[in-house]
Amino acid sequence: MKILKVLFTLLFMNLSFGQNFEGKWILTKNGDTYLVPKINVFEFKNGKIISSDLEKNIQTNDYQVSENEIFVQGKFLGTYKFINVNRFTLYKKDEKDSKKNLEIDFVRLEKTKTELTESEIEKLVFENKDYEIKIAFNTELQKPIILEMMKERGSKKMLLKKIDETYFIYNYEGNELDSVIPIREINTDFIEIYGFSREEPYSLIAKKI
Fold first, then answer.
1. Which residues contact 67 (CB under 8 A, 6 or more apart)?
2. Does the domain formed by 3-108 have CATH 1.10.1060?
3. What is the pLDDT of residue 8?
């Protein structure tokens, strides 16, 4: 497993992008890449980049860019490519070891479309049968037989949190935070989540059950 330690100082000190980068972006997990910390959000605002874990700001730095190349303190960091207006990929090649090549996706956080209150959302249960995904809040989601064998280490739960104008699913495994998934839209018929898949349409819809 590749281990990607997201060091804010190394990645985004003195970066500068164009106006298309304005807003908040969440760093997504690619394949077997392991993120440290597990929640990485970057806000590009007024020539500054603010890194956070959604709960608190970690660093604020200037940023710069030249065409599609990113430089950190005058040193080449990598190239970037916009997949669409709400998604871009950062590439960094290691000339000596291709296994150390870096490829990171950033997804712009959007205002969640919903007319429901937080308490109303927490009562809903959704399912996508194609991917065998069930979304339910504040309840145990692990299979009883696995939970019986592994006890708390096998626990799987989801919590709902709203930060700014975006709702998130906080996934916990073994009582530890495993991942955070933003919600694009939610109503009494379906939920659409995004920010985790590298395949089009880059989102998943689960229907209410």
1. none
2. no
3. 45
